[in-house]
Amino acid sequence: MFLSDLKKGDRAQIVQIHADKPLRDRLTSFGVMRGEMLWIKGCSLAKQTMEIEVGSTLIALRAQEAKKIEVIQTDKP
Questions:
Q1: What's the CATH architecture for 3-74?
Q2: Could you tell me the residue ranges of all domains in the chain?
Q3: If exposure means fewest CB atoms within 10 Å of the residue's CB, which of 10, 17, 52, 57 is most exposed?
Q4: pTM metric for this prediction
Q5: Quick one: what percent of the chain has pLDDT higher than 70?
Q6: Which residues does 32 contact at the CB level (< 8 Å), separation at least 6?
């Protein structure tokens, strides 16, 4: 499952990032890395962008970036 498959309110753990080194490095600088938990805070109407929370950081990702982040969905609290 990929981050782009989730919807607002879902929680997940990052399994792997399938991206080139520059994008992986940029995501890592925001705390988006393997093993981290994230929460989908919102999505645009056409789901072209997603707002996610990783730790205490809010990040907006494009749909094409979200499709490169493999996750395992977890239960909601």
A1: Roll (2.30)
A2: 3-74
A3: 57
A4: 0.90
A5: 97
A6: 14, 17, 38, 52, 54, 59, 69
